[in-house]
Structure formats: C-alpha cells, structure tokens
Structure prediction request, 191 residues.
Amino acid sequence: MCGRYTLRNSKAVKDKHLLNIDVSYNICPSHQVLTYTTEPTFMQWSYNPIWAKTPMNLINARSETLNVKPSFKMAKRCLIIADGWFEWLRTNNFKQPYFFHMNDELLYFAGIYTEYKGEEGCAIITKEATKHLSNVHNRMPVIIADDEFDSWLSGKDVFDSKVSETIDYYPVSTVVNSPRNNNTDCVRASP
Prediction:
C-alpha cells in the first residue's frame, strides 16, 4: 500500500512540465496532487466510482484486480507525479517508517481517476513489491517509465517496468507519521 509520498523536486517539475509547484514532504490522502493525463493537472487523492451512493475514498487499487473489480470499470488512466514514497515496517509494537526514492528523480505512479460529484479524484495502482523492496512492505506503487507513458495512458497494462528495480530506501524519523509535518525532517535518514 502507498499511503504517503513526496514531491520535493520542484526544479524537475518546472523543467519537464513547465509548472511551478509547492514542494511537499508528506502528501497524504485527500490532498490535491499533481497528475498527468494529457497535461499536468491537480486532482484529489481519493478515488470514488461514479456509481457510489456514498464516497469510498480509495487511495490505492491493486493491479491484479484493476480489470476485474466493478469499482474500476469506468476509470480513466493518469500518472501521479512524485519523487518518493513512505512505507512502514512493523516490528513488535513499533512501526518504523522508510523512505523509498530514486535519488530525487521524478517518479510516475500508475494511476486511475474518475469524476465524482463534480470533482476528479485518483488512486495509485499498486503491485507486489520487488524482492529488494519486500523487506519493508509486500506492496509498492506501479512505476511507469518515461517511454511507457503513452502505453499506460492509452489503456495497456504496464505493471513490470524496469524502473522498479532502481528504487532505494532508508529509515526515517517517525515525524512523518503526522500529516501536519511537511518539512525536510520527514525524509531525513534516522540513525
């Protein structure tokens, strides 16, 4: 599951998408997040099928059930722009947060979105974690390489990009546990 992520590299976003953004070290569900469909756009990180009577507020969708579950049948595809994400490893009664990254390079998570009650909302597609990353968590976001953007957006299932093999991670402080914290302390390596 991917429940928090970062978008700190404002220069890369400006260079690639001609967009000025506020950096974020702790993007949480329900936040407005930077996505790409045919152009960069902001959406709420909260996916709801258009037929839902009450909001479901999904933040992740499993790649294995993407083409099966009714909740995703009418979804459109997007890319969710990030440069890292967090996962927690539970040991005994403590949950240690870890930061996953690719040396501050932009990452593009596979995403889906719909419009629900007049607002577009998205979810991150997840898959089984690569062996290297599964030491911390059994799931990870599906990451789409630059040359796979068109394939993903046009409806092809791209779940095994080689980009996933280049991700690294390290432990960080529990300061990231609070959504109120949004500064460099969230990604600083813990001793």
